[in-house]
Amino acid sequence: MTPHVPHADPQAGAAVKAADRAHVFHSWSAQGLIDPLAVAGAEGAYFWDYDGNRYLDFTSGLVYTNIGYQHPRVVAAIQEQAGRLATFAPAFAIEARSEAARLIAGRTPGDLDKIFFTNGGAEAVEHAVRMARLHTGRPKVLSAYRSYHGGTATAINITGDPRRWASDAGTAGVVHFWGPFLYRSPFYSATEEEECARALAHLEDTIAFEGPGTIAAVVLETVPGTAGIMTPPPGYLAGVREICDRHGIVFVLDEVMAGFGRTGRWFAAEHHGVVPDLMTFAKGVNSGYVPLGGVAISGRIAATFDKRPYPGGLTYSGHPLACAAAVATIQVMEDEKVVENAAALGEHVIGPALRELAGRHPSVGEVRGTGMFWALDLVRDRETREPLVPYNATGEANAPMAAFAAACKRNGLWPFVNMNRTHVVPACNITEAEAKEGIAALDAALTVADEHTA
Question: What's the whole-model pTM score?
């Protein structure tokens, strides 16, 4: 669709900005140092501000608008549901809730056929861990460095990136280990095969020294998202599955970001032929139109609670408006072949174009990804792989990445920037022309990053 950008109205934008700065407390931010853009509207893969500037959104919001903004069928479904039954308590059988669960279960791998609804991804991780601990009677959870699982108490402790540090309880029963990442391997590997074998051996050693009988779950993002879009090497997830089975550990895959078409499959686990015991989801399940997440539960875990009450729930679990949005989103994805579009454009357009950029820009150290899920690892020196900015850089130390991001925005592209990376994560139904438009803007902005290379 071609977005309609209304006439500029700077006065209205100033009023929105003033109210925001007076009253809104923003997440993950030093409140006095931020300058949020006042957004006037959005449609498809674009949004625009009150000054009439339009941006191609290469972030999909926070990697969740998988079918773009304001899809008319999803908007209509929300409106219709609001007219029929705007809300109802979670203990009842409601058509929108039942149908959403049925459609999700029909697309999850294996026997993940029971759906526990939450309001988002962090709550989904919280409840997956609770289910694992109750099922096994064990306290510990293992998760990887270079990961993000959410901002609630358990989810933030499972997280492996610096956002955990300020809230790390130390006694939360979480142990971190290194997952595979050949480009910055902690195992000195030269090949994907070596990285896979050494990462699995490291996990085996971690479990042995922690005590297998104390570990309830291993929690992994199927493809780590915010941490760098690092697709695991062939055989790794199958190896983790085997280790978990051998030790009676629950295997949890976090598909909050990677799920619902993002990698060119309904779920990223399909690329690896692996079925976890529990799978978390959110974001793309309804393109974020109304908050929704959940846990897809295997028959074995679900049976634990056949006669034993599950001690957890949420007031808005399976909210009718959110579930109606999920039903419409899944139907849109089927009818408009959104998953197929993500796979095809990723393989034939975005991947080749990003690799071509890497051949011309010395600041691009590595290109990695699949579907609509890509990352450019930006470096000062390709030979040493020194990141363009230090790990967790702020202020002046982060200036090269800030300059790159500013250049993107001047070219009409809203980038996803994290540490020394820019991620290419547009809507999964983006057109080829839109993808090429965004990559051209990236090409121009990378000349700014190139200025900071050795």
Answer: 0.96
